[in-house]
């Protein structure tokens, strides 16, 4: 049996100005932005991947609100996780002469021609949370420390299993194991999924190597564990197959590394349907997550999901606005990482924001006290 641990933690790392698109922006290699343009005469194009994932709805709202507060007009488009739709939406934004682009891609490698067009039109491009890859025409990247997200997820799993203490050092009373865990990864076409995975696996590797943790399915490569488009139903089906094949009888699942809350909820559904308990206290394994979606925060409050990772998208949206505004004023936005994010064509200057581990013991401090959710929303599981 795993030994469930909790503590209060903040595991952070630290329309166009002119009729022609060519006059509206200031991307790398362009003739520069119209720094005298009034913000109310400039439109910023914001491309988001989907509305089916709660966090992207919040991101879109936050960016739009922040840009409009600065006086800019905003065209906000969601692509319903369809790559051709997002390509077309960005094409239209470029054609209409937006002053800047903020893009959260579905597939970071699928927008090369759109980025080429943006550069030709002098439009600065800000890659938002998901890195745009295989193109030199990405001016800036705003994101969270995604390697740290994976590290923090793995640490929450280890802490919940009783293997580490609150400082993430080996616990004095750590179980000897072996403890049975299964691993899930995100969508392979999302660059962040690889960073989450690397951070998590680097952290778990010593415990896997010494046999403290075992993966009964033997599925330990990202390709085996990936969930296309981060779909909850796909994660549930994979967990059901793992239970049927590798956990017959009373063989216990002690923990599951899940990189995002929708996957976590699918995994929980599979475990509950298999009679593995309704809460952690009565047998559910330690299950991680990410994005602090309200449905999962309620599960954490109810002792069902063990953890999630909070990435304050209000701050990320504000940073995207800071970057866009800098370009439109003829300046360079501040980067705090100029080495990590090589997109295959260039190292993209980046601004990384911290992340926080959320557990049953601290969700109120991290999420409610900061105004991200209300107590009523957590109780209902609806924002």
UniProtKB/TrEMBL annotation:
The entry's keywords: Signal
Main localization (coarse): other
Keyword Signal in record: yes
Residues in coiled coil: none
Domain Periplasmic binding protein positions: 44-332
One Pfam family it belongs to: Peripla_BP_4
GO function terms (MF aspect): carbohydrate binding
Location of this chain's protein in the cell: Cell envelope
Gene3D superfamilies associated with the record: 3.40.50.2300
Gene Ontology annotations for the cellular component aspect, listed alphabetically: outer membrane-bounded periplasmic space
Extent of the signal sequence: 1-21
Entry annotated with the keyword Nucleotide-binding: no
NCBIfam families: ChvE
Entry protein name: Sugar ABC transporter substrate-binding protein
Source organism (scientific name): Brachybacterium endophyticum
